[in-house]
Specification:
Number of helices: 19
Distance between the termini: 36 Å
Strand content: 15-25%
Oligomer: single chain
Number of strands: 25
Radius of gyration: 23 Å
CATH superfamily of the largest domain: Aconitase, domain 3
CATH class of the largest domain: Alpha Beta
Helix content: 25-40%
Structural class: alpha/beta
CATH architecture of the largest domain: 2-Layer Sandwich
Length: 605
Amino acid sequence: MGMTIIEKIIANHSGKETVKPGDIVDIEIDARVARDFGGPNVVKNLETYGLSIDDPSKTFFTFDTNPTGSDQKYAINQHIVRTFARKHGIKVYDINVGIGTHTLISQGLAWPGSTAVTTDSHANILGAIGAFGQGMGDKDIAAAFHKGKVWFKTPHTVKINLNGNLPENVTAKDIVLNLLHIFGANKLLGYAVEFYGDIVDKLTLDQRITIASMGTEMGVIILLFPPNDEIMAYCESRTGRKLEKIAADKDAVYKDTFDIDVSKFVPMVSRPGKPHDTVDIHETQKVKIDSAFIGSCTNGRIEDMRKTAEILKGRKVAPGVVLKIVPSTDEVWQQCLDEGILKIFKDAGALVSNAGCAGCAAGQVGQNGPGEITISTGNRNFPGKQGKGSVYLASPATVAASAVAGYITTEFEIPDEPVTFSYEEQQEKLAKAQQEHELNKKEEKPVVVEGKVWLIPMDDIDTDMIFHNRYLQITDIDKMGQYIFDNLKGYEDFAEKVQPGDIVVTGKNFGAGSSRQQAVDGFKALGVSAILAESFGAIYERNAINAAMPILTYDNLSDLELENGDVLRINFETGEAENITKGKKGKVNPFSEVQMEIYKNGGLF
């Protein structure tokens, strides 16, 4: 039986001739990376447990979340990492380089068929070149630094065939927004995806990166593109050596196959709050905006900059609108300088910053305020992710056109005169913003736990809702609990009311989004005894298991007739569950052997 691309990569890096979905193996990691976000916690784990570095030549730090050094706490954390790196001979790609996942590609640290892990939840962007990339929490990354390997469960693979001719006005960002419209945030949860079809071989590296970078928002392990000759030539030039092309076997087995007609794709926009809430741009057209952002790991490439310049040339940003542009890497920034693109940006009235993650990381330009409406090329618009305002997601062409028009529009429908805000509209927005501002705190491990139920009937609760990015500088676990769910509407007072031993019961895809370990450790700080969900975000699941935080999945809880406040008893080993309050019994999925081993050990270390 043949193997898919992800199965081949895992087999090649685990000493196995073959692997199949469900196999748990230790994978050798070619690039072990931590960012300025997460890096200090990685260092803390290494020093606390006295762990050595397996191979400094394969170990790296990337500073991309706050390359401006504008935040004192980030500056401290960066210095902690720099000091550790000097001591152990680890290379730091510092604040002048750009986004770490892009750096792995451009510096030849990742190549088709290779493996990489980092504290960036969008490490699966490496699927753009046919490589295995995974975002992981600080414990996983510390283990990778120390052992050179991490354990990983081989996922099922699905095949998506992109057939037909792509309309001229549909960009790579529109492709992935259309896919989000089709599959949502959890229909492909936990799968690896391979792309084939009429348009795939024609996609450039920049276009592949844009699509692959939103795999996390789709809930997949990775979106993989079989590398074509152009990608192979690029990667060989960056690594300085001849590379072997990775491809699925002809008799590879796929969990499912989807045939998608791209000729029906249209320019799309994600409405505020959920990246997968995508609609035809004409459903949001002429929504007035206050600001616009072009950049992030999704759309900060040179092709994105050139398209933006094409639209802005000879035009001005609309009065009252702020346009912020951040290239993904310093190499792209330098290209913009050499090609005269930066001058076009400045002449149009845009603010241009040095390369980095920008608004997505809450540490650089791109954030917005209460009541502010932003259109962004980022990959996430979870509440609070890019500030306290509302964020629409779109392509660079749409964002640039909207910045000129003053409202959401396409590049083909830019008005001769931009719209402006009246005094009354401004006062109304200020009042709304003010209102929003006012509304906006080792021991023996038990195999059986019992606690009061917190029933939270929601799907896709992301890590910004669980532990907001404004608290990411916190490294003391005891201080994390107070912020759990303070960005989840209706549960802002959870941390004040929850009691040690309580059990959280929720829906699908819990913990989607970022790789932040705090979204797990905060529950431990509060003494929550278990979290039950129909499914978990892939990175969150690993973080919780490695931290010995009991998480369990279920297929159906109807037999338990659970309500808020009921007392629930769960057996981690057998999956037996009982609603003590009502005398009802049911089943959940028990711990796997690996999860039980890590749990009883008190954590991965």
